Amino acid sequence: MTQSDSLNRPYEECGVFGVWGVPDASALTALGLHALQHRGQEAAGIVSFDGERFHQHKGLGLVGDVFGDSRVMATLPGTVAIGHNRYATTGGTHVRNVQPLYADYEFGGLAVAHNGNLTNSATLKQALVKRGCIFHSSTDTEVFIHLIAISLYTTVLDRFIDAVKQVKGAYSLITLTPDDGLIGMRDPLGVRPLVLGRMPGYEHGNGGWVLASETCALDIIGADYVRDIEPGEIVVINNDGLRSLRPFGDKGGRFCVFEYIYFARPDSVLEGQPVYEARRQIGCELARESAVEADVVVPVPDSGVPSAIGYAAESGIPFELGIIRNHYVGRTFIEPTDQIRNLGVKMKHSANRPVLAGKRVILVDDSIVRGTTSRKIVDMVRAAGATEVHMRITSPPTKHACFYGIDTPEESKLMAATHTLEEMAQAIGADSLAFVSFDGLYRALGHANRAEGARRYCDACFTGDYPIELVDKEGNLVA
To answer: Can you tell me which family this protein belongs to (predicted)?
Structure first.
């Protein structure tokens, strides 16, 4: 697994989208990927199928950059398509790593889009290379391609099941084949999200099906939410309709709790829980747990906004937009020199001086990773005239690396793993610092405490309790 040394906050783990039985499937897929842009900004790709042939287009950049030309969309005909937004958690930023990956087999073509990370991909790759498999990318997604190729089963679906039974990790998959159609799946513990929707007209038996990482992608194309794909469930969508398979049985679920804190869009609903309301409730819990006298509550945009609203409502302290975000600075922005790199925070955020000057400020943010971004934001708020700056964080301290598809630094570079709370406050320059407690986090999600809630969620980045075996890490292998 490759983890960037330049990260100052965790980054998303990719977005997937697929439609079946819909005119202009590729155009709808591009819209769905646009709604999932927050999950990956490095690259985007679409593969469509017109009933006879597969068509594909992919490239580096945002969805609008890759698919903004109508001439490109015209090369992607068909009533079925899958798409992918990439943020690299394994492999570098190269066109060969852009998904969906496509391969020609003896049974025909197959395309796969993958969100998450495999914890035994390096181990599997080593074995596959010894068998003569030739890898063309450095992404762990290609492991699926080769496992399907060497499977001794006859049908594509059986080959697919054979492949996924050999991998370990946190993932959601969407696969497109000529005969079995659209295949969607979540890993056996359901760490990564995947939802099912239907296009208008399904009441009369002619509406298409949709698979997506989040419900916000259903909303943009006017699809109705049906349900979440269950942990370990495989859904097969084709001309015969939809059927569900559960080759792993019921292993419970450990959904990534950070989806609610930061990753998902606030207008999405995941596992039946509205993300916006979850974040607002976390802010309320923070206000109850770590109250401090202040004049304004200010979010660090954008993920801190709902929680800051909750904090302000619970505390009675006014909510103000004291920091303004520039939405036109992407995460792929080139930072060639130290001088420009040090201006990175000011490029993304600017202080609203009239709101901050002479005020005691509570800053609400989602996490502290290395601490360098938090330090620059605190300094910026002080430079705007704030008399006190109190930082409140809507997650517990991030003390452990994620191996399940979220790009975080190694543990030695995580501030909370190497500093006490007091040392962290001093390092970022805050007058006080507080994180939401584990019990507070799970109360916000509707549970009595962590002992109850942790049975449903993965919170390994906070606790080190990894629910899925870290095969490559334990074997000192790197994907």
So the answer is: In the C-terminal section; belongs to the purine/pyrimidine phosphoribosyltransferase family.
